[in-house]
Design a protein that fits this description.
Layout: H1 3-11, H2 14-21, E1 36-39, H3 53-65, E2 69-73, E3 96-97, H4 110-113, H5 119-125, E4 129-130, E5 140-143, E6 146-149, H6 157-167
Parallel strand pairs: 1-2, 2-6, 3-4
Antiparallel strand pairs: 5-6
């Protein structure tokens, strides 16, 4: 089946369409019930997600109060840029992170000129050490309970790393 055919078949998957149509809003989430947060990619994650205080509160509750994992892949790492610990420091401060760097973008393209900030530059300005690998390879960075992936090729590896962390006994 072609990629388009695979995608099209999902449009007719009643269970998937029901789930998408009944996805919770951040206001409906009880963060006490969760042990992980996963900021997914796509360049639209750079708009609205980073400054959404409800999402920030959920992520930090899961991380600090539940001892859970915060993770992101590709442009989803934009969701990490404003996360602050209860002491006011940035979550990414002093941590190794990955994501989709601006040098992989088509910088002459109209979409890029509309970005409100640059992911690598912003994560580094907030104390993160930004790591990348070859553009066409999956690449995941695990730093404690923070898991980040470079690109869509890392989209499966990131949750696998999260599950591995969650399976370890709490210290």
């Amino acid at each position: 089946m072609t990629e388009a055919g695979e995608f099209r078949s999902r449009l007719y998957d009643a269970d998937l369409m029901y789930a998408l149509g009944h996805t919770y809003t951040p206001a409906q989430i009880d963060p006490a019930r969760y042990r992980a947060v996963y900021f997914v990619g796509g360049s639209n994650a750079i708009y609205g997600v980073p400054e959404n205080t409800q999402l920030q509160n959920i992520a930090m509750h899961v991380y600090e109060r539940n001892g859970g994992v915060v993770s992101a892949v590709c442009h989803g790492t934009a969701g990490l840029v404003n996360l602050r610990l209860s002491d006011g420091k940035y979550l990414i401060g002093g941590k190794r992170v990955s994501g989709y760097p601006e040098e992989f973008e088509r910088q002459d393209a109209a979409y890029f000129k509309e970005f409100p900030f640059l992911i690598r530059q912003t994560l580094e300005s907030r104390g993160g050490t930004f790591l990348t690998s070859a553009r066409d390879k999956g690449y995941v960075v695990v730093d404690g309970r923070l898991v980040t992936g470079q690109n869509y090729l890392s989209a499966k590896q990131v949750p696998e790393a999260v599950v591995e962390i969650l399976r370890k006994p709490a210290r």
